[in-house]
Write a structure and sequence with these properties.
This protein is an alpha/beta fold. The chain has 11 helices and 11 strands. The longest helix has 10 residues.
Length: 237
């Protein structure tokens, strides 16, 4: 059925499905429940489908003290609702979609600061002015390898990833993330620390979340752990 036509009680009767299509024991969780489970351990990207309720969602994020743990992706069609949220919460991390250099300029002026944006590899490759513009802004470009590029990658053909790397796309979404990571590791470009490159141990050990300080600098999300700084969105310049 249509989720918007259901009551919360009706939604609670359903269960999520496993990868093999069988029903799991996991109910459909609320946005708040998902955030509470992720707090201090998982970075959340919200794909905004209904801009009108974005401020209500951000109210929950703010109440839980998670503004620096949530990023908001939104298409042009939902920008009015997101703008209202951003006016209330100017520290929210936005990731708008842009397919052209000119619209990116508009977004950069409308949402300030803007650290990251979503685009398509083909759009960047066909506009020679696009990459210089987002590099001028020190913005991180986010794109995906979903569907055909992912299937191509699973055959061992990494040419699509190489094209992304050549266009300085530094935040990659894939259904086969572990394969992307292995490929990026060949170039020492996955979770590259800004200090002590040979020592990533603080990121693989249990660390008191209260001792992790997060900052945003030059289009980067940085974690400061045990005296070391780790860069989550690429190599800091």
């Amino acid at each position: 059925g249509v989720l918007a036509n259901m009551t919360y009680e009706e939604v609670c009767q359903y269960r999520l499905i496993n990868r093999d299509g069988t029903a799991s024991d996991e109910p459909v969780h609320t946005f708040r429940e998902m955030l509470e489970a992720a707090k201090d351990s998982v970075f959340i990207v919200v794909d905004v489908k209904e801009g009108a309720i974005t401020t209500q969602m951000a109210n929950i994020v703010n109440e839980l003290g998670m503004m620096d743990e949530v990023m908001w992706y939104f298409p042009k069609s939902e920008q009015d609702g997101v703008k209202a949220m951003f006016n209330k919460y100017p520290k929210a991390i936005l990731m708008p979609y842009s397919s052209t250099k000119d619209y990116l300029v508009t977004l950069h002026g409308k949402y300030n600061p803007l650290y990251i944006f979503h685009s398509d590899l083909a759009k960047i490759e066909t506009d020679a002015t696009f990459r210089p513009q987002f590099e001028k802004y020190n913005m991180v470009c986010y794109a995906n390898t979903l569907n055909a590029p992912d299937e191509q990658m699973m055959t061992g053909d990494m040419s699509y990833l190489e094209r992304m790397r050549n266009q300085n796309i530094r935040f990659i979404q894939s259904d086969y993330g572990e394969h992307v990571v292995m490929w990026l590791n060949k170039f020492n470009q996955h979770f590259v620390p800004t200090e002590s490159p040979a020592d990533l141990s603080p990121m693989t050990q249990d660390v008191n979340p209260k001792k992790i300080i997060k900052t945003i600098s030059n289009g980067q999300i940085l974690l400061h752990v045990n005296g070391k700084t780790y860069n989550l969105l690429g190599v800091a310049k």
